[in-house]
Amino acid sequence: MAALDWGMQSRLAQVFRPETGRTVMLAIDHGYFQGPTTGLERVDLSIVPLLPYADALMTTRGMVRSTIPPTSRTPIVLRASGGPSILKELSDERLAVSMEDAARLNAAMVAVQVFIGGEHETQSVRNMTRLVDAGQRYGIPVLAVTAVGRDLTRDARYLRLATRICAELGAHAVKTYYCAEDFDTVTAACPVPVVMAGGKKLPELEALTMAYRAVEAGAAGVDMGRNIFQSEHPAEMIRAVAAVVHESMKPGEAYDLLPRPAAP
Ligand code: R5P
């Protein structure tokens, strides 16, 4: 941290709460390659009410300008890569936002997908390094998002490789999946904060348990989407995730913060 410029440190402190060094980022950027994901059809109705509970909102510039109130105090982590849709080869991304526009939007951080082992690995790494160079000029940190292709295994060996490459090449934080075995070796080998990705919707207790284990193993918080906005109780769920992340609340106790399912 100390080696970073003041602006960069200030933006990182907006995303990662200084009291805990952790974040609960709400990811709603899915539309940039998969269109209106279930739960994100009406971001104005489903997501805007959750903003006060999120440490940061990961989203696109289109959604920021069209739907997120500029009066919101929640920092924006701006999706800055894109190109292919779910109908094409996903690793064939390009940078999709200039750093000047990210600064204009008051982004606290920019996010870029990195496909280690993917068909367009080098191109996606180059997207990240170009974004880091631009971010250095503007004091805007870069979140590298490790995308795992369908034929790759999300184990600690792969995640160590992917996260370390991103950090070595300049990412200021890395978003990656949790793995049940040896996740602590992933966070230990990565010299910048590792944020756990949410992934597909799980039962709430399982999602809270995964978040708990990830932060106990050294993650600097979570970047969760579907496990929050596809929950029947998204506001209570994001507060339960925050209790796990910032207060190290046990998953069972955090689960009790959710309304009980109605008796059949
Ligand atoms: C993943 O690579 C993208 O950033 C997603 O659009 C999003 O962040 C995923 O969130 P989740 O898997 O928690 O729904």
Layout of helices and strands, plus pairs?
Blueprint: H1 6-15, E1 23-27, H2 31-34, H3 43-46, E2 56-59, H4 61-67, E3 76-79, E4 81-82, E5 94-95, H5 99-104, E6 109-114, H6 121-138, E7 142-146, H7 156-168, E8 173-176, H8 183-188, E9 194-197, H9 204-216, E10 221-224, H10 226-229, H11 234-247, H12 251-255
Parallel strand pairs: 1-2, 1-10, 2-3, 3-6, 6-7, 7-8, 8-9, 9-10
Antiparallel strand pairs: 4-5
Helix pairs in contact: 9-11
The site of ribose-5-phosphate has 13 residues, from α10.
A few lines on this structure:
The protein has 264 residues and is an alpha/beta fold. 39% of the residues lie in helices and 15% in strands. It contains 12 helices and 10 strands.
Describe the 3D structure.
With 264 residues, this protein is of the alpha/beta class. Helix content is 39%, strand content 15%. The protein has 12 helices and 10 strands. The protein has an 8-stranded parallel beta barrel, surrounded by 6 helices. A two-stranded antiparallel sheet has the order 4-5. Helix 8 (183-188) links the parallel strand 8 and strand 9. Helix 9 (204-216) packs parallel to helix 11 (234-247). It starts with 5 loop residues before the first helix and ends in a 9-residue tail after the last helix. The mean pLDDT is 96. Ribose-5-phosphate is lined by residues 27, 29-30, 58, 145, 147, 197-199, 224-227.
